[in-house]
Amino acid sequence: MAEAHQAVAFQFTVGPDGIDMQLCHEALRQIYLSGKHSWKKRFIRFKNGVMTGVYPGSPSGFLVVVVSYMSGTKYAQLDPSLGLITKLGTHIPISPYMSEDSQRVVGGVLVGTGLWVTIIFIMRNALKCLLSWHGWMYNRHGSVSWGTRLWILFVKLFSGRKPMLYSFQSSLPRLPVPPVKDTCRRYLESARPLMDDEQYVRMEGLAKEFEKNLGPRLQWYLKLKSWWASNYVSDWWEEYIYLRGRGPIMVNSNYYAMDFLYVFPSHIQAARAGNVIHAIMLYRRKLDRAQIKPLMLLNTIPMCSSQYERMFNTSRVPGVDTDTIQHVDESKHIAVFNKGRFFKVWVFYDGRLLLPREIEQQMERILADKSEPQEGEEHLAALTAGERTPWANARETYFRSGKNKQSLDAIEKAAFFVTLDDSEQKYETDNPVKSLDSYAKSLLHGKCYDRWFDKSFNLIVFKNGTMGLNAEHAWADAPIIGHLWEQVLCIDPLELGYTEEGHCNGEPHPNLPGPQRLQWDIPAECQSTIQSSLKLAQALADDVDSHIYPFKDFGKGLIKKCRTSPDAFIQIALQLAHFRDKGKFCLTYEASMTRLFREGRTETVRSCTMETCTFVRSMIRDETREERMRLLKEASEKHQNMYREAMIGKGIDRHLFCLYVISKYLGVDSPFLHEVSDVCYGQKKKVEEESMSSQCLDFIKPIGPVSRTQIKPSPELKRNVHGDSPLSLLFISGKQGNDTNV
C-alpha cells in the first residue's frame, strides 16, 4: 500500500465543507521534470533533423548567402528580388501593407534562400557522384595516386564542416545492381575449386541459359526496385534471412562481445554494472543528439549510419510466420534479471540520468533481494531461446493482457537488458583455453534462460565483475555494437573510474526509489511450453563446440611488414587447415560491409579461390619456399580484390539472393538458382512453392551469415593442437613439421 500511496499525485476527500484536495508536490515535481526532459529531447531531435536536412549547408551559411546576396544587389543598384515582388504584386495586394524597402528585404531573403537551397542541392549531388567512384580502393597500400588525392580534395570540399551522425545519409549513393553476366561469371569462378570438370561444364551451361533467358527478366524487376528503394537488398535481407527464420536465434544468429582480458577495473559486480550502464546511457544520449561522428574511411569517405537508429529501445517480437522489430523512441528504464527474477529499474530521476554510484545502489538492492522467483518466472526467458513459433503462440495466448502484458512490455520497451549473472567468468593465464571456452559459451548462450535473446543487446555482468554483451543480429551487424562496446570499455575505467575499494565514485542517493519487481501469472500450459523451449535450447547449447586459443607469437603488425593483408593471411590459413584436416576444400563465407552505400549491410566474400587452392596444394607438395611465397602473394591479392569488389557492390550472393526472391514472387522456376543452392548445401532440397519463407531460406541458408562454414577439426587434429602452439590449428600437418612455415 505504501508504493500505491506514493504513486498518487493528489488525493481528495468530499466533506460537509466541500472538497479537500491534497497535492503531492514531489510527484508533481517529477511530472514536471519528466515533461521538461521529454520536450528538451524533442527540441534537440527537431534541431538535429533540420541540421541534417540542410547538410552540407548550415544556418550560418544561410546568413552568409542571404546577406552577401542582398549586399551585392544593393551595391549594384539592382532589385534583390529580380522582379519577383513586382510580379507577385499583380496578383497579391502587397503594396498597401509593405513599404518599398520592406519589399526589397523580403524579396532579397526569398531569392537568397532559393540560392542557398540551390547551392546545397548542387553540393549534395556532386558529393553523391564523387562517392560513387571507388577507384581509390585499388591504390597500393601506402601509396596514393595523384588522381585519388585530387578526388579526396573534392570530397572534402563538398562534404561540409562538422558533420553529425546522419549528415551524409542523403549524399550516399545507392547500391548498384551488377550485370547478370558479371555475377554469373564471378559465381562460376568461385564454384570452380569445388567442382570436377563434368560438374563445372554442367553448371556453366545452366549459367549461360539463365543469363540469356530468365536472368534479364528478373534483373529488370530488380533494377526497378533499386530505383525506387533506398537499397535493393537490405529490406529483403532483414526479412528473409533473419525475421522469417523459425529456428532458435540463440547461437544460430545472436553473437557476443567480451570484456578486457587482462584488465579488471573492479571485482564488485554491482559497481561494474553501475559504471557500465551509465556509460551505455551516455552513449545513447550522444546517439539521440546525433553527436557521434560518422565513421569515415581515410577520415574522408563517409559510411552509412542508418543501423545505429535501432540500437536502443528495441526488441524482436515473435510471430507465427515472421518476426517484427519493435522500436520505441524513448525509454527511461532498463530490465534486469537476477536469480530467476525480473526487475524494472528507472535510470532517470529528478529529470537527469542516474550517476554510476546511484545505479550501483540499485544493483545492490537487486542482489540483496532474497525473494524467490514466481511460479514459471525463473525459466521464462527460455521462450526467446527456443523456436520462434511456439514463443509466438505463447505470447499471443498468455501475454496479451493483465500483469503479464505489463511486465513483458517493461522488458521489450526497456533501453536494453541486463543480467546480473551468479557465475564467475574470466581469462585465466594458467588455464587459458578452458577459461576462454567457458567465458565464450556463457556469453553466447548462458543457461539458456538468463538472457533475453530478443532484445537488441544484453549486458551480462558476472559475479566477479567481468562482463560482456550478447546481441541480436536482425536490427544491425556486429560493427555497430562494436562501436558502442569500444566507447564503453574506454569510458568505464578511464573517465568514470572506481574508488580504492572498487565502488563507483560518488555517494548513494538517500531518497532514490528502489527497483520494481515485475509480476507474472504464468499458467501451467505456458510453463510446459517454457520447459519445451528450454529443453531444445539446452540441447543446442550442449552441441556448441567452442575452443578459443589465445595466440601471442605475432599479430597483424608482423603480417603487414611482410606486405600481406592480415585478413587474407587468416582466410588462406583457414583453407590450409581445413584441407589438411579434411582432405578437400569447402565453400567458405566471410562477411564484408557495403556501408559505402545508403542502408548497406553486408556482402559475402567467397574466400575459397583457385589461387588459394593452388597455394594450399603447394604446402602439401614439396615446393620451394620461394614458390610458396609467390603463390601466397597471388592468393592474397586475389582475396583483397574480391573483398574490394564485395564492398563496392560487385559481390555475388546478395545479387543472386534478390534474383531468387523475385523469381519466387513471379512464380517462375530457375534450374540455375536451384543448382546454386545445391552447390552451397552439397545436397538437393525440395522447395515448397506455397511457402515463401521456406523457398527463400532454402536458398539463403548456405550464403547467409547464420550459416558460416564451421571448421571442426578431427579428433586426431585436436589431439595434436592441444599439445602445440595455438597457431597449430592453422598449420598442423602431422609429419611435415617445419615445412609448413610460411
From TrEMBL:
Keywords: Acyltransferase, Fatty acid metabolism, Lipid metabolism, Membrane, Mitochondrion, Transferase, Transmembrane, Transmembrane helix, Transport
Subcellular location: Mitochondrion outer membrane
Gene Ontology CC annotation, any one: mitochondrial outer membrane
Biological or metabolic pathway of the protein: Lipid metabolism; fatty acid beta-oxidation
Domain Carnitine O-palmitoyltransferase N-terminal: 1-47
Gene3D superfamilies tied to this protein: 6.10.250.1760, Chloramphenicol acetyltransferase-like domain, Choline/Carnitine o-acyltransferase, domain 2
GO terms (BP aspect): carnitine metabolic process; fatty acid beta-oxidation
Segments forming domain Choline/carnitine acyltransferase: 175-675
Keyword match Glycoprotein: no
EC number: 2.3.1.21
Active site: H473 (proton acceptor)
TM region(s), chain numbering: 105-127
InterPro entries cross-referenced by the UniProt entry: Carn_acyl_trans, CAT-like_dom_sf, Cho/carn_acyl_trans, Cho/carn_acyl_trans_2, CPT_N
EC supergroup of this enzyme: transferase
An annotated Gene Ontology molecular function: carnitine O-palmitoyltransferase activity
Organism domain of life: Eukaryota
Catalytic activity from the UniProt record: (R)-carnitine + hexadecanoyl-CoA = O-hexadecanoyl-(R)-carnitine + CoA
Membrane disposition: Multi-pass membrane protein
Pfam families registered for this protein in UniProt: Carn_acyltransf, CPT_N
Matches recorded under PANTHER family: CARNITINE O-ACYLTRANSFERASE, CARNITINE O-PALMITOYLTRANSFERASE 1, BRAIN ISOFORM
Recorded family membership: Belongs to the carnitine/choline acetyltransferase family.
UniProt-recorded name of the protein: carnitine O-palmitoyltransferase
Source organism (scientific name): Hucho hucho
